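User: Could you write out the 3D structure of this protein bound to NAP? I've included everything you need below.
Assistant: Certainly. Input first, then the structure.
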Amino acid sequence: MRAVIQPVYGPPDVVRVDEVPEPVAADDQVLIEVRAVSLNGSDRENLAGRPAYARIAGLRRPRNPVPGSDVAGVVVAAGPEVTAFAPGDEVFGELPGYRGGLAERVAVRPTTLVRKPAGLTFVEAAAIPQSGCIALRATRGLSGEPGARVLVNGAGGAGGALLVGLARHHGAEVTAVDRRDKADHLRRLGADQVVAHEDEDWADHHDRYDLVVDLIGRRSPWRVGRALRRGGRYRMVGGRTDLLLAMVMVGPLVGRATGRSIGMLVVPQSAADLAEVTSLVTGGAVRPAIDRIVPLDDVPAAFRRLATGDNSGKIVVEIG
Ligand SMILES: NC(=O)c1ccc[n+]([C@@H]2O[C@H](COP(=O)([O-])OP(=O)(O)OC[C@H]3O[C@@H](n4cnc5c(N)ncnc54)[C@H](OP(=O)(O)O)[C@@H]3O)[C@@H](O)[C@H]2O)c1
């Protein structure tokens, strides 16, 4: 079968489309015929092997050379221990280990998969898992705070649309931060205010936000804390490894000392969360933003676009 191969960490040039052996489902696995895969910021990190946490899947080179985590497809075989799914089921979800999806077929334990609703295409379904689960966890609690001021840093990339959308759905006033040329995209997502990071540092907005969700953390706990109102919370989702460690080790102390809550948002891969956020998509509360749909052969170019940050929303690879 055909698959995308990333033999080493590096720039998008290391990626190629090639023939690989057919996967076989183990007793506790399903074999999925992949129809669509969406790319996340984590795929860019797993390609580059940076930040350091991206090497969890192999210190010197990726143990599984096939990238891609958010898949949608059809179950074509199921091992004898699998009871939740059967051949013919349309499924989607985030693959355990964040790799293996950019292939015509993938064998996987189905713990993170859910059934695809009939009203969603494979492309739409593939655009939901990782960013949807981040958005769900990040905005939990906002429904009890109508009018809360929320800032999303890095809102114009793969994961921002569902975050901005869910915060708005809960009645928040949303400030979205990204590159200047993504301002129109951010307004289309529903952001009330847009900040271009080249022009303005949101961390200088002192005492303003009830919640800051940071997809691309580059500031210290002290600095981000000053943008929060008393009682407000900062949650770092991704970004520099030294700052992630600082958020875990020092963030809670800075928060306690200043009457704020500062830390990291840990988002486990969860079928229950995916089902919950998908029901919000099918109910019309939010929808993912799709930058473009490309065939498997164009994945090297898609990784180049992801690496430069030129995508506004999700790049989705359609297979077959
Ligand atoms: N915490 C968890 O449990 C968990 C789970 C899964 C994933 N993650 C992490 O979540 C992150 C996923 O985010 P994503 O998929 O939305 O990433 P993404 O597609 O890379 O989006 C990030 C956006 O931020 C923009 N940006 C870059 N520098 C910026 C700056 N200084 N200020 C404001 N915006 C800036 C980027 O645009 P330009 O580069 O063009 O400027 C891009 O539009 C990844 O880091 C991933 O590792 C965390």
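Residues 130-264 form a domain with the Quinone Oxidoreductase; Chain A, domain 1 fold (CATH 3.90.180.10).
User: Perfect, thank you.
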